[in-house]
Amino acid sequence: MSEDAPLPPVSMLRLFFRMGGWFVVGVTVAFLGVTAVAQLFFGAAQRFEAEGRPVVALVTEKRVAEGRDSDGDRTVTYWLTLEYVTGAGEEIRQATTVNVGEYRAAEEGEALEIWYLESDPTRVEVTKGENAGSARVFRVMSLVLGVIWLGLFWLVGRWVVEAVRARRYGACEQAEVTEVYRTAISVNNRPRYRVKWRDGQGRPGQSLLEKRRDVEEVRPGDRVRIYQGLKRAWWAKDIGDRDDTAG
pTM (2 decimals)? Predict the structure, then answer.
């Protein structure tokens, strides 16, 4: 097989996603979610700092709830049922989730000091400052995800720019296919493939990740059209052709 017909230029957005943009989107969603959770904990910490009131509560029940998350993994939630009387004389009995350490440290029938919000007496901290601690943890996670996002965005964006620049200004050449192989990467349980080639100067190159149907007709020894970039060559089928391609 030899490529002859010119191919329409692939848009920068499509190149972005083909070169790993979905990972950038995934990290963006995770970053926004973690940041939102950090802000929720920070807001709660500020409220407890301003209006948190200590009270001695009685542990009337301990229980463990097991379930499955959306991925089917086992989850465990620890609960304590507490009874206490607020400074305003309101009698409260409620179950609250706790971490495993708090759960193991508490005993039924035991009295322990907790903190409640004066404006919302059913909202408590079993350990003073736990919301502030959670806010710090999630802020660190947010910072790490932010750094990862910047790195991924810069890397994928650089690849897109290099590919578009090669298509516009790079030498258009014919290269000989040396191998078409199945990678270890799968998307939606469907394997992805790469085409390897060697250009006229003997330099090796390879395509982006391809679906099987896009490489079924490509065989070692075939000639494919490539564009030489500053650091690597790009397959015309991946990035498209520029207007002056002669075939």
Answer: 0.79
- 3-state DSSP: the chain helix, strand, coil percent, rounded to 5? 40, 35, 30
Classified as helix, coil or strand, 161 is: helix
CB-CB contact of 124 with 96 (8 Å): yes
Do residues 96 and 63 lie in contact, with contact meaning Cβ atoms separated by under 8 Å?
no
Q: Which stretches of 129-240 are DSSP H helices?
A: 130-169, 212-215, 236-239
Average pLDDT, the chain: 93
pLDDT digits (tens, 9 = 90+) for 137-183: 999 999 999 999 999 999 999 999 999 999 999 999 999 999 999 99
What token pair was written down for 59?
């542990």
Q: Is the pLDDT of residue 247 over 50?
A: no
| 69: helix, strand or coil | coil
Largest interatomic CA distance in the chain:
88
Element (H, E) at 15: helix 12-16
